[in-house]
């Protein structure tokens, strides 16, 4: 095959385009060329499997000698198009491209090496960066001093001048005529190894892919793609403009196929589906599924149930006017160290069809959402965790150790399921349809049941806290029976070097089960809606009052998501009354553990949405004390005197100090001079 002339090669490709037919005997590629003409397209996509069936030697030549083969293939496509419509063929002759898809073997990014240089390969990975769109010159028009135009092909990084004018023979003083030069759209995309394919302890491999023509902007950060292209070795100019023997790899892309629309990365066989349906049909299916979540951790059934529901999620809805109702459940774990929070997060990252784990100490706003970075005079858009985990789950450990400005970047992602970037002339909105599972430790090391949630977790902003559908508290309370059970469980795990007791559902099957369950979109029944409505209205009534904050519609939407997720877990096409009652039970659990005011011992959604009643009353009482001390002259009050008066007004020493700090933090008072405070506006 290597000795074939280019003309003969073009004839073979032309015969291939004309002779391949489908099962009905209809010409496949002649029909595609006709469609290209009608749609004014410029790319003919060829299935590599068809070429392999037609002539395996010809297919192998395309892979081993892609440059010459694709040039001949393009000529064949042009001739075939010309027989259909000569006028259109002549118009798109220079832009016409043959693109190959479906190469038989995907080369893992970690195994791309020098043996693949100048060969056509197919890789799969995740898009983590995309550059701005820029015009690249393919043919330069040069004007000599006499005004003659000479065209010069451009196939290198440096701009090439013609050796001489074709009409007058001039060899210098050429000027570039941009108006008559030809350009093509150009973009650089960085493709990185998929998280689930990354070996432990290894840095992810990545390649920069050059994309030209009508396939630019097909892939966005967060998309999972299969790219076909030619591996190149190009000089590395990073140490200066002097050429060295050190080269770097890049891929010239021929075809892009976006696989990231659905998180269905797990292959399900017919036997798997039968086993999944059998599990869902058993009477104790829900309990078996919960007990299969993080089996190395003893207990915590409600928290494990929340993980199960969060992975499957509710049903996202888009209204006719474009309004989107999110279906992702956001869950927050708060509690004592050593209670298994991090282990549960890592299990969720492994069992979710698409899960990413990040630690708050090493995560920034750009690392969580998206960033615009400048690289080699080009702006590139780089995706963060919640974008890369689109239609999956993002786990964020040590949530309290993040900077406050970094945490606030999650507001849009957790409610609108998008990430908007406006920087460096780039304005982009990326999909972040991601459920967030976060874990944080109390500010003083252990959770204090005599303080409210916000006092235990410190500076977590209330608007962000309100975006969590479920919040659970892990408390390490010494009890002889539980301590003995836990000790025996841990010792058994270490002795067996496996689970203390085998989980009801094996890990690999559980992952397939959850992948299957995510596909279902159950409908709300009237009975379920009545139960959820009654519970929500009851919460509104019982939480009413002059100083309290009642639950908002976000609470009702959270209930709908929880009930829908439970129906999906059990593979139901409808959300039943049982699912609604289970959602109510989980919400009640959160109200009892988290949303009960430590001062009044009553349910108060102000703990999550604002200030609880007890704190509001205390702040009002403290302001009255300060106002009385200021008197009619509104003079500054000594801080120590103010604290002593608060203690006389039945505040404890600790509460008085905390109340003063709260008043400063919320801008109710300020320090007029060292040691003296005044009310704002006095």
What's the overall geometry? globular
Number of strands: 26
Helix content: 25-40%
The end-to-end span amounts to: 92 Å
As laid out across the biggest beta sheet, the strand order is 3-7-8-10-9
Query: What does the largest sheet look like?
Result: 5 strands, mixed, barrel
Which whole number gives the mean pLDDT?
A: 81
- Please give the CATH class of the largest domain: Alpha Beta
What fraction of residues sit in β-strands? Answer: 15-25%
Structure report:
- The protein is of the alpha/beta class and about 675 residues long.
- The chain has 4 domains: about 5-100, mini-chromosome maintenance (MCM) complex, chain A, domain 1 (2-Layer Sandwich), CATH 3.30.1640; about 110-260, OB fold (Dihydrolipoamide Acetyltransferase, E2P) (Beta Barrel); about 270-595, 3-Layer(aba) Sandwich (Rossmann fold); about 615-680, Winged helix-like DNA-binding domain superfamily/Winged helix DNA-binding domain (Arc Repressor Mutant, subunit A), CATH 1.10.10.
- It is about 40% helix and about 20% strand.
- It contains 25 helices and 26 strands.
- It has a 5-stranded mixed β-barrel.
- A hairpin with a 2-residue loop joins strand 25 (about 670-675) and strand 26 (about 675-680).
- Helix 3 (about 50-55) crosses helix 4 (about 55-65) and helix 9 (about 300-310) packs across helix 20.
- The model has no long low-confidence stretch (mean pLDDT about 80).
